[in-house]
């Protein structure tokens, strides 16, 4: 593109006093025109004295957009109308010109290119302004800044992922330790103690309770708690949204939530803003409830990832442990209990006698043994049937449990034969207990079908350690001999063993 402009020699000469010669000529003009920058010279009074041809390419100018003799105000007005120069940059540069100081700012052309405008004062009061295309440089700077931002974001994400992984590993370690202790429990009592201790450490800024369904399943019994005294003796199954909905329930006071009745019943002195209830499920059956309340205003409450999710995972592990202990207890119970009466079986009873002999011998103490059976039970079975006989045996067992209350061990030896171990009792004390049992059985009424079965009586024989023997078989033999004496004496009576 060809641009009409005043030759350099003419422009320079026009700005000088008459008669003063100038050395500017075609060579100087050629040098100026081949520069990468656009150059514009303003006189002290703001009139264009010179510009090179490069300025047209740098500023996207056409012929007439800049001319020797044009005022700076006219030139700038065009730039501002196109949006290349902001009012702020115009005021800033005018202020600098007024005090003869350099200025610099970026102008963005309609084409999107960025041009650095840099003005410097001359000794005569004028200004030389250079226009440099810095589009690529500015883009590179922006890219560098964005790259830095992206790098910082990536680093932050990496730190977050690392923190999450460390939290997960810490969580797994804690849960592994909890599992190890829970699986070592030999009873539910031990398990509840371990749960309370571990939960206080796993979620230190929480307060919670563990409830387990009673055998009747009409209520849940409070088993253990941590960091709080708010443990109900019992709660109703319908007092908890988690139990009613069949899944974990997280309460957040800022969400659409409703407080569980068992939480409201505590009447906390501070508002409960966040808590979670986790059903305890063993082998597909809901056996209890884990309630965890989080303390407001404690940052450490979320130190292990999401506290609510961690509480749910704790609930899952506790569920598995309870299931295992219950299953182990059931299997153990089946191995030592008589399935009809629920009393201990012969094998367990013999072991119990051996243990008691060792304890009594060490303490130089005594204990009693009662052997009894139902009178004329074969005739009863023949007259009323085996189902009625089973009802009688269960009724006798219930009576035994009602009478025995001080650590006695009751056993069904087989058929209608029973035995009771009475720790720490003398011969006379054991005789009195046997008489109490005989009387209680004789008063028992057994309903069968639409009626009541005939009255059942028992005959009992009593022996004691060490008076009647020092071995289980000896003691049982002496007690059985006394039982036969009771039978021979007319039944429905108690006889003591004779001294060997």
Description:
By secondary structure, this protein is of the alpha+beta class. The chain has three domains: 8-133, Beta-Lactamase (2-Layer Sandwich); 181-334, Beta-Lactamase; 337-496, Alpha-Beta Plaits (2-Layer Sandwich). Helices cover 45% and strands 21% of the residues. The protein has 15 helices and 18 strands. It has helices at 8-14, 26-33, 54-59, 72-81, 87-98, 135-183, 188-202, 241-245, 261-264, 307-336, 346-363, 377-384, 386-403, 427-442, 472-488, and strands at residues 38-42, 48-51, 103-108, 114-121, 127-133, 206-213, 220-226, 234-235, 249-252, 274-282, 285-294, 367-374, 409-414, 417-422, 447-448, 451-452, 458-465, 494-496. It has a six-stranded antiparallel sheet with strand order 8-7-6-11-10-9. Helix 7 runs antiparallel to helix 10 (307-336), helix 12 crosses helix 13 and helix 13 (386-403) crosses helix 14. It starts with 7 loop residues before the first helix and ends with a strand. 29% of the residues are buried. The model is unreliable at 1-24 and 298-305 (pLDDT under 50).
Which features does this protein show?
single chain; disordered N terminus; six-stranded antiparallel sheet; Alpha-Beta Plaits; 15 helices; Beta-Lactamase; alpha+beta; 500 residues; 3 domains
């Amino acid at each position: 593109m060809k641009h009409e402009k005043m030759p350099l020699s003419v422009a320079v000469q026009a700005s000088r006093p008459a008669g003063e010669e100038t050395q500017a000529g075609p060579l100087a003009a050629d040098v100026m025109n081949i520069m990468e920058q656009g150059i514009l010279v303003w006189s002290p009074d703001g009139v264009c004295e010179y510009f090179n041809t490069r300025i047209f390419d740098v500023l996207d100018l056409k012929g007439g957009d800049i001319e020797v003799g044009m005022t700076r105000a006219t030139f700038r007005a065009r730039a501002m109308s196109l949006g290349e120069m902001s009012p702020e940059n115009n005021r800033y540069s005018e202020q600098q010109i007024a005090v003869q100081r350099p200025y610099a700012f970026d102008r963005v052309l309609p084409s999107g290119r960025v041009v650095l405008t840099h003005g410097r004062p001359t000794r005569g009061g004028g200004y030389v302004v250079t226009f440099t295309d810095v589009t690529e440089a500015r883009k590179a700077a922006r890219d560098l800044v964005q790259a830095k931002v992206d790098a910082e974001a990536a680093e932050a994400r990496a730190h977050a992922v690392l923190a999450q992984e460390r939290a997960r590993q810490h969580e797994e370690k804690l849960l592994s330790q909890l599992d190890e202790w829970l699986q070592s429990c030999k009873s539910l009592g031990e398990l509840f103690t371990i749960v309370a201790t571990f939960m206080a450490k796993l979620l230190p800024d929480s307060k919670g309770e563990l409830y387990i369904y009673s055998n009747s399943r009409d209520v849940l019994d409070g088993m253990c708690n941590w960091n709080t005294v708010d443990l109900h003796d019992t709660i109703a199954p319908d007092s908890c949204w988690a139990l009613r909905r069949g899944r974990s329930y997280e309460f957040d006071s800022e969400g659409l939530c409703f407080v569980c009745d068992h939480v409201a019943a505590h009447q906390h002195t501070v508002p409960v803003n966040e808590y979670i209830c986790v059903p305890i499920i063993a082998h597909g059956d809901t056996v209890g409830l884990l309630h965890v309340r989080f303390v407001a205003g404690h940052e450490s409450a979320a130190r292990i990832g999401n506290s609510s999710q961690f509480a749910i995972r704790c609930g899952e592990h506790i569920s598995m442990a309870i299931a295992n202990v219950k299953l182990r207890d059931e299997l153990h119970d089946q191995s030592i209990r008589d399935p009809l009466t629920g009393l201990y079986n012969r094998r367990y009873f013999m072991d119990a006698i051996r243990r008691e002999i060792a304890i009594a011998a060490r303490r130089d103490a005594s204990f009693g043994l009662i052997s009894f059976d139902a009178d004329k039970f074969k005739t009863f079975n023949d007259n009323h049937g085996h189902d009625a006989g089973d009802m009688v045996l269960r009724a006798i067992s219930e009576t035994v449990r009602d009478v025995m209350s001080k650590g006695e061990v009751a056993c069904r030896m087989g058929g209608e034969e029973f035995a009771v171990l009475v720790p720490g009792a003398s011969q006379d004390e054991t005789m009195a207990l046997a008489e109490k049992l005989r009387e209680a059985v004789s008063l028992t009424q057994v309903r069968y079908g639409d009626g009541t079965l005939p009255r059942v009586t028992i005959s009992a024989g009593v022996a004691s350690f060490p008076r009647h023997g020092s071995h289980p078989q000896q003691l049982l033999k002496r007690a059985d001999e006394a039982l036969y004496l009771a039978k021979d004496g007319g039944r429905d009576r108690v006889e003591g063993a004779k001294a060997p």
